[in-house]
UniProtKB/TrEMBL annotation:
Its main location: cytoplasm. GO terms for biological process: phosphatidylinositol dephosphorylation. Keywords: Cytoplasm, Sarcoplasmic reticulum. PROSITE patterns: PPASE_MYOTUBULARIN (PS51339). This is Myotubularin-related protein 12. Belongs to the protein-tyrosine phosphatase family. Non-receptor class myotubularin subfamily. It comes from the Eukaryota. The gene is Mtmr12.
Amino acid sequence: EIHIKEPIEKEVNPHLLPGELLLCEASTVYKYMQEDGSNRGTYGKLVCTNFKISFLDDDSASDDNEPQFKNKIVGENDITLQCVDQIYGVYDEKKKLLTGQLRKYPEKLIIYCKDLRVFNFCLRYTKEEEVKRIVSGIVHHSQTPKLLKRLFLFSYASAAPNNTDGRNQTVMFETLEDWRDELERTKGNVKYKAVTTNEGYRVSEKLPLYFVVPICISEENILKYEGRGIPIWCWSCHNGAALLKMSTFPKEQDDSTSQMQKAFLDGIYKTISKPPYELLKLDDLSSSLPSLQDIQTAYTRFKQLFLIDNSTDFWATDVKWFSLLESTNWLEIIRRVLKKAIEVAECLEIQHTNVLLIEESATDLCCVISSLVQVMMDSYSRTKSGFQSLIQKEWVIGGHGFLDRCNHLHKSEKEEAPVFLLLLNCVWQLVQQYPPAFEFTETYLTVLSDSLYVPIFSTFFFNSQHQRDTNKSGESLKTQSGPFRFLTVWDWAVQFDSKAQAFLNNPLYAEKPKPDKSQRKTARFKHQRQLSLPLTQAKPSTKRGFFREETDHLIKNILGKRIGKFINSADEPPNSLREFYDSWHSKPVDYHGLLLPRIDGPEIKVWAQRYLRWIPEAQLHGGGTIATAAKILDLMEEVQSLQVKMDEEHSQAVSGDIHSVPMLRNSARLSSLFPFALLQRQSVKPALPTSTWKDLEDEDDLVKRDDEFVDLSGDML
């Protein structure tokens, strides 16, 4: 039996953005609400435009059912063409991947998205002609290779009025002045200089227009090998030590060329390394970190755990969750990257040594490590504008190939790798370990990851500054001619109204203390740290168990192997690094100083909000971090209102932030995955066959700890 709403009689038209064109549509399409065997769902219209795939039902026409956290560009039932991962058709209950030309059209369509949503559409009740048009249209526009200028980015830029400045205090690093200001901010201008050698891209199209190099590097050296073999400045530490990056020479070279390049590099190194005053450590990331192919393979396996077709599949995988998670190797890659960042931080902070990161193009893992080191060592990078400026500097202007790595044009899967997602996953580990240190929230990181697939912003849709600049010229519908005016993702008002934007800001962010209050604030921070992590000792033991007991039988069997990886592995860090790590963790945290992530064993967690937010079974209704945050905000409100009564003359200044997160009232109705999970999405755990649990009789605790298995982010307090 199929429980359905009646087909809609009134016409529902899609909301089209400027430059958006309707390409094909199909009526009487049935969208399953949840594949739990009941086939509940709703009829509606499925449409495909040059920007998105959208399902329109009668609820789409009314504003009564709007989610509390609404994206103004991409709705709940919208999938941008760049967000489509894979499309499957169901033929006689068998799933088949759909690509290219289709000979036979499916009775059911399953769309897997890069933001991990899964859409199930039934086409049995749709006219045959409409089925052909919509299925072939969706497959063609979302899965086949396309030209850069065919991206919706250009259609939107030519048709949309651009009234926004879009900077929001974010430094874009598009001018020489921006680089000089950054040098001055970090006190790096004593040893380093911003250069204009690449103006007109005469050195290399891969390098930005402006960048920073050591003062002793000449223009002739920069021009000699198109910028290869030149140390490019990333950031300077307070003690004068600097973080640098460098692209390598091609490997296939004849002997004489190799000798010349080696001599050239030796000369360059000597200009930076002047013992005992200036030390230099070279770090070849291609040999010390996983390859891009390994990262892509691990993430592909990892995301399959969250692309759940139905409730039955979820509970089947839940029983063997940890072994499946372990086999993907994704968390291990995150741990290795964080460990590398700690190594670099130790060189800069303790050894006062310059660190030169080396990679073939210096635009992938170099970006990850340099960004992480700055987030860990520079509190400015932990503010919202500082973090956005960091992404602009190291990734957008730094030349990370977003177009290729995200495979936006479907040109080559060989180039695809989730490098930027890897950074966001690593930053999330720090955000959830030290919440008061960050001005932004995990929700901010989640919507930033979603913005990778929204092609109205230029931020994540070019491989380099040169590619963006050369494609800026074009015919604009408004002005008839002139360059395109692309939007930047940092203008959050384009996607969210002010109420929704409040979720991006952390109300518990520890503002930099004023000198006269420093002692009082330091004491309070130490207390906060212990409150926020009740299952972690102040000085973490390297042999800490996953949940509570070190001798726990289940933990020894399931997780012992992984916990031992950091402590007993062949690549165990040198004593000096281990001492640095343990010494830092034994002291109270200074939220505006150096931050070191905890990386032993199970301290590396799954980013639950991003990966579990569309799975109803994984939600804790009225629980999780959001319930705790709601209580804290209530308390803050009460304290602030009392402060108002005590000091009337400052009432406006103090009460300004009282309602900073306006939607957290009545936390009992919220889900642990708020604000993404909708309240009406309830799920009931099915009765599992008794045999499933009999297999686990020896592991009684597994049953008792069901919630802890589901809630991977440590949400349960």
